[in-house]
Amino acid sequence: MNDTRKRRPTLQDIADLTGVTKMTVSRYLRDPQAVAEGTRERVAAAVETLGYIPNRAPEILSNATSKAIGILIPSLSNQVFSAVVHGIESVTRPAGYQTLLAHYGYSPLREEEQVASLLSYNVDGLILSDSQHTERTRKMIATAGIPVVETMDLPQDPIDMVVGMDHRAAARAMVTEMLRRGRRKVVYLGARLDVRTQLRMEGYYQAMNEAGLEGRHLLTEQSSTFTLGGQLLDQALARYPDLDGLFCTNDDLAVGALLQCQAKWIPVPQQVAIAGSNALDISHAMTPKLASIVTPRQEIGREAAAMLLARLSGQPHPENRRDMGFSLYEGESLG
Fold first, then answer.
1. Which end of the chain is more exposed for a tag (fewer CB within 10 A), N or C?
2. Assessment of whether the complete model's pTM goes beyond 0.90
3. Distance between CA atoms of 192 and 253, rounded to whole angstroms?
4. Phi and psi dihedrals of 146, rounded to 5?
């Protein structure tokens, strides 16, 4: 098969176009101020004209640091993690670090593969989105000897540094608020069954038990979607026809349940109160507005990056474990 790719411009191409040596071009690319002003202007123009793209592979292989941070997220479509990445890059980009993004679909084995791939690029540090990892993942990270920040949760046995929030406490607070407003037959809807879904269910049961009430739940391993939220609402009504509240593990399920209630002419919150988690933008666009747990996603990303860069610069962050907290958005769907 013929290779139809165009040849990438090289340092020699720039040197030939400007009449300087490859060494001068290389010096300019490392630090433009290291060459004379006239040369700097000619080389800059040549780089622009040729569309030159630096090849960092030799630099990565020959240096102790790559100026790259590996980020692992479980979902590319989930707004929660896009906000975390945005927070990370708001710190890493000004500091001159590139980010390498890997997706693992909530699978510890896939995460293991992606960690191995990122480490092969000699990344300077890792930011992880989960706290449960395979033994091989932990061994690879230990062997690499690079700083790591686990985000979103607050594991008791972290690999290194941690930035997250207490999902159990957040769920307990939301359900307690629903009970304070008079709900007594609240059902928990969970999907995916990842760590955060499990922690929120524990918080739900804590609140129900403290009120002397029976907890009830519906769980599925399917990915959260609006459609799934509507389906779980139907199942909950069939199994628990007297329910008067739904606490959903995230806003996707909660929005789907709310829309399905409206399709069935079930008044929210008069007959059924609904609350979710993550306070996504769509929750504020609903009518009624969806009550939700506000998770500080961008703040978690920024703090994780700040911790990592502080470690890399030899200036340890004041904290290696940071609870970013949470708040409740008591939307109209709460009643």
1. N
2. no
3. 11
4. -105, 155
